[in-house]
Predict the structure.
Amino acid sequence: MTFFRRLTGSFELKGVGLHSGRECRLYVSPAEGKISLAADGRELPIEQLGLDGTSRGSDYIFPDGYRIRTCEHVLSALTGMGIWGFRLEVEGGEMPALDGCAGQAVEELQKHSEPCEEAAVRPFALSSSLVVGEGERFIMAFPSQEFRVTCVVHYDTPVIGTQMMDFSGEPEDFCRDVARARTFAMASEIEALRAHGMALGGSLDNALLVGETDVQASGGLRWPDEFVRHKVLDLMGDMAALGRPLHAHIVAVRAGHELHLRLAERLRNLAAVGRQR
Ligand SMILES: [Zn+2]
């Protein structure tokens, strides 16, 4: 049994963008029966926006090429809590990084939402299995009565190693087990990321920094397997690209935003075919 919530009012979040390093603002407001993204006079339902997961985050792209970067953590906070009718207006071209996870957004959403019985939009139920990716990195999705995620990560460092999480998709479990898991980067790749215009706003306030034998984390790791929990957080946020709750069991093995969004594209196409019938 999944519980849903609806927004009771609007609020604002602001802070530095994780990749751009610029000051960004986000206005969250209720919207009836849809998820929409807005920026500088543009506005579209989320399922009509282009997707790009190749730059260490999930970017949503308007038809004129304007993109909103790093949307996954805020979207994860909303849909993870079971909120499906909302409008996000962004200033600065990127979502604020906040605390590097969904924790701060969830705290605000708890003040500005209330339980309700049904999602604001009809769920999409996957009717046959599909797979994206190949080799050691892939995602499979199976028909299921409810949303469920099984996630596996593996990094060749003793700090992370192999971690696995099976997650129910329930908002209560999301808030307790997933929302506060922070994003992470390898210390060895920071310079290269910054040279390519990424991670410019990254700091120990909003990310974990993984070294060869240890991890730098503000206040220490919140769980030994905080890394796989964050991957679940990312995957949930990326499934919001469908614009509707998903009834499927997703099994993600060493995946990332690029694969998540490839799956979301496949699901968007299947949902569009279903609507034409
Ligand atoms: Zn993330």
Remarks:
- The CA atoms of residues 5 and 114 lie 5 Å apart.
- The chain has a mean pLDDT of 95.
- Residues 72-73, 183, 230, 234 surround zinc ion (CB under 6 Å).
